Amino acid sequence: MSKNPTELAAYRALQAHYQNIQGKHLRDFFAEDATRGERLTAEADGLFLDYSKNRITDETLKLLLDLAREAGLEEHREKMFSGEKINTTENRAVLHTALRAPRDATVLVDGENVVPEVHEVLDRMAAFAEKVRSGSWVGFTGKPIKTVVNIGIGGSDLGPVMAYEALKAYTQRDITCKFVSNVDGTDFAEAVHGLNPEETLFVVSSKTFTTIETLTNAHSARSWLLAKLQDDDAVAKHFVAVSTNAAEVSKFGIDTANMFGFWDWVGGRYSMDSAIGLSLMIAIGAANFLDLLAGFHAMDRHFQTAPLHANLPVLMGVIGVWYNNFFGAESVAILPYDQYLSRFSAYLQQLDMESNGKYVRVNGEVVNYQTGPIVWGQPGTNGQHAFYQLIHQGTKLIPADFIGFAQSLNPSGRHHDLLMANFFAQTEALAFGKTSEEVAAEGITGSLVQHKTFEGNRPTNTLLATRLTPFVLGQLIALYEHKVFVQGVIWDINSFDQWGVELGKVLANRITPELEAAQTPELHHDSSTNHLIRRYLALK
Ligand code: F6P
């Protein structure tokens, strides 16, 4: 049943509660409870969350968890894991969790256990990846593969590229992966610049196999290959496809023997642990890929079984709702203190914003409250020298997630301690700030006192793990997947469709022939669009 969150008793109680504590400072929260920093923490299989630097009390948390319960979180969670068709606008089950279920698990879709099929594809991927890695898969002229180019966009790109960067330390370094996504020809041109087609394998990744960007890039890749190899038979040795659409794969000219499938119950942005991860598996090997899946699965189990008050995705989800719906925060910063996670926030942008960027409730009514936040960020310490100023002293409240590791994968002198000193210092500074009295006590006078004062009271979560392993990466991704789910349930939206990207595609299809026409066509857009198109045609 569709429930407007603002009409739930817990929501009303939270509104009243917000009035009482909105002005309260994190300094006071900590002063009142010496154990707060140890108490407001939770852990899932070694992944540690400190949520004490949030503007919450025990009462806040109780009410937020009441809200989650009242919104039906536990029932919805069960429905998702058991394969009910909770993606109602597309009449689909939502079962990315089945992609990482152990071989002996049972997950039913329409009465059929999908786990054997999942593992059959994983086994085929592993065998293929091993051939490429060992050099026994050779190109058309008998040379082993040196570069794997993944062609895909959105969920068929962001996950693999993020994880390839994140797990670079685990990759076989004599094979390089490249990722082509943009329909801008520059992306393809730069990716293949200097490559030898004889040693290049293209993995065309597209759930639907109808996405214009991916098909355009795939066609360019085929022309690039054939320009050198001059024989259509070469395609079979240099192209594989990852898709749910065998008919379109064949139509493109890729033998379906070289196709790795997945299923319509896997959303694009939830698909990196399906065959969409093929390029990643080639890079890191099957064992590491399975370790990644084990991390995902561990977080699935945690989400499914841990009590709500100790459940990482639930805690992060409800705390996010607290800032989004009560404090009016519009964005969330994701700040990993690990260079390997340089693409993590870009990945989470699609995961979160495509999932929860909705203004229509499950029942079709327009919401009268805020839904998904803007997600952004980049790794520390770089961000500190760019946008942190606004987080510290700007006028906007920006809750932030700090993600760090106790051990570096590249230990070198003082680097890691310096990195982590900044990691701890930032959340401390954001929470506690620096008072005018403290500034004045340093001998600062006049208006400079105000300039140098830090209000503090900026909330953060801290996620700390031992080391960035494939397992931990899996845990982290699943943590955010489920956090997004928790929030989608509370906001009563369908987190699993993405109709909002359709209109732009339709209009682009209408404009394309106008740009490609031999003569300037009659244009029937608004005056701005007409004028811009005419100018483009005159200049091109
Ligand atoms: O941007 C819309 C979208 O449908 C995403 O949800 C998806 O990840 C992406 O396009 C790519 O789709 P496909 O894998 O079908 O090419």
TrEMBL record:
Task: List UniProt keywords, sorted A-Z.
Answer: Cytoplasm, Gluconeogenesis, Glycolysis, Isomerase
Catalysed reaction per UniProt? alpha-D-glucose 6-phosphate = beta-D-fructose 6-phosphate
SUPFAM superfamilies, A to Z: SIS domain
Q: Which residues form a coiled coil?
A: none
Compartments, as annotated in UniProt: Cytoplasm
Q: EC no.?
A: 5.3.1.9
Q: Name one GO molecular function term.
A: isomerase activity
Question: Could you confirm whether the keyword Cell cycle appears in this record?
Answer: no
Predominant location category = cytoplasm
* Gene3D superfamilies tied to this protein: 1.10.1390.10, Glucose-6-phosphate isomerase like protein, domain 1
InterPro entries attached to this UniProt entry: G6P_Isomerase, G6P_Isomerase_C, Phosphoglucose_isomerase_CS, SIS_dom_sf, SIS_PGI_1, SIS_PGI_2
The kind of enzyme this is, by top-level EC class, is isomerase
Keyword Cytoplasm on entry? yes
Pfam name, any one: PGI
Instruction: Indicate the family of this protein.
Output: Belongs to the GPI family.
Specify the protein name. Glucose-6-phosphate isomerase
Query: From which source organism is this entry?
Result: Deinococcus roseus
